[in-house]
Amino acid sequence: MDIFHAREQTTRRYTATIKDELGNALAGTSLTTLTLTLYHLKDGAIINSRNNQDILGAGSGANNVTIDANGLLTWTMQPADNPINDATLDFEDHVALIQFTWSAGAKKGTHEFMIRVANTTKVP
Fold it and tell me: Can you give the residue range of the structural domain that contains 26?
C-alpha cells in the first residue's frame, strides 16, 4: 500500500489517477459512483465523517474532491482529515479507501493508500 505523509491538522493535496481493470485512466464522466472512506488503521474508527462518502456528487468539488477527463483525482484534505487520536505516538496511520464503479455500475474498482500523520507535538 502506498504511503502519503501529512502533518496533523494540516491541509494537504493528494492526487492519483483512477484506472480501469486494464490500467487505463477513467474520466470522471465515465464513473457511475465514486466514494471515500477514511479510517484509523489501528481500530477502524471513521475519521471526519468520511464513511462511504460520495465524492463524485452532482459536480466538481464534491466533498473536497475533483476528478477530470483524464482520470486525475485531486483530494484537498482538510485539517479535520488528519487528526492525531493517540497523543503519545510520533506518527499515526490512517487509510483512505476510494471505491468506484463504471459501465453503469457493472464494473468496480478501488484505490487505497495509507496516510502517515505526524504528531506535531512529537515530531519537529
Answer: 2-118
